[in-house]
Amino acid sequence: MLKNLKSLFIVEEEGAVKKTKAKAVAEEAVSNEEAIVVPQEKVSSPKVPSSGNVSSQFINILFKAMENNNLDGFDYLEFKQSLKSLEKMPMDESTRYQSAYAMAQTMGATPEKLLQTAQHYLQVLSNEEKKFEEAMIAQKQKQIGSKESEIKKLEEIVTHKVAQIKQLTKEIEDHQVTANALKEEIGEASVKVESTKNDFVASYVALVDQIKNDVENMKKFLK
Q1: Which residues in 57-96 are b (16+ Cβ under 10 Å) and which e?
Q2: Taking Cα atoms as reference points, which of 68, 53, 54, 59 lies closest to residue 8?
Q3: Is 103 exposed, middle or buried (CB count within 10 Å of its CB: 0-12, 13-18, 19+)?
Q4: What is the rounded distance in angstroms from the CA atom of residue 147 to the CA atom of residue 136?
Q5: Three-state secondary structure call for residue 18
Q6: Are 60 and 81 in contact (CB under 8 A)?
Q7: In the list 23, 34, 76, 162, which could disulfide-bond 117, CB 3.0-4.6 Å?
């Protein structure tokens, strides 16, 4: 049944899904189709979702829903089948619809019933759209929302560490200033100590030389 239902709206050519004259119906069935995209985060080349293409996977899901909710008796789908059988006939669209309806009348169909049952299938597809949107919300929360929360936490950590780095940088600069001041003090103290040492040595040598000179004189003159 599913394959026959698909053939009323689309034809498959070399494995690819092709649109027929009834493409407006197929497009309405998948008008809200969106691909769940999980972008790989790249600042240099951000990913963007595709503009959307008719997908065999989603087409099958939508047709399956229509099949599961197929109404008894002659309805829009049977009328669609009649239209499909007249596609290759040499007639304009108005004549084709009127001819299909002439056959439908023999099965007890009325315009009101055909429109009513067509609305039924539109509602079936609308329900599938709502299910898909709910699934999308769950997927976005799972695949995107959790990552956004992680990004927020990481950004908070980065902000905190940047503040720490600024604080540490300031402390390093303060330590460097203190260290440079201590180096200057050490330099001044070293000069002072060395000068004091030199003064002591000069004084010591001067006094020792005098005493030694007196010793030599005493040896020389006191006999």
Answers
A1: ebbebbbebbeeeeeeebbbbbbbbbbbeeeeeeeeeeeb
A2: 59
A3: middle
A4: 16
A5: strand
A6: no
A7: 76
Closest CA to 124 of 205, 80, 66: 66
Alpha helices in the chain (DSSP H): 2-9, 23-29, 56-68, 76-85, 93-105, 111-140, 146-221
Residue with tokens 């929302």: 145
Rounded to an integer, what distance in angstroms lies between the CA atom of residue 116 and that of residue 109? 11
* Tens-level pLDDT at each residue, the chain (223 residues): 545 777 778 755 434 444 443 444 444 444 444 433 434 445 556 677 777 888 888 888 998 999 899 888 899 999 999 999 998 899 999 999 999 999 999 999 999 999 999 999 999 999 999 999 999 888 888 888 778 888 999 999 999 999 999 999 999 999 999 999 999 999 999 999 999 999 999 999 999 999 999 999 999 999 7
Task: Report how far residue 197's alpha carbon sits from residue 75's, in angstroms, rounded to the nearest whole number.
Answer: 119
* Eight-class DSSP state of 71: P
As given in the structure block, the two tokens for residue 44 are 């240099």
What letter represents residue 222's amino acid? L
Contact between 66 and 96 under an 8 Å Cβ cutoff? The reply is no
Closest listed residue to residue 54, CA positions, set 28, 80, 77 = 28
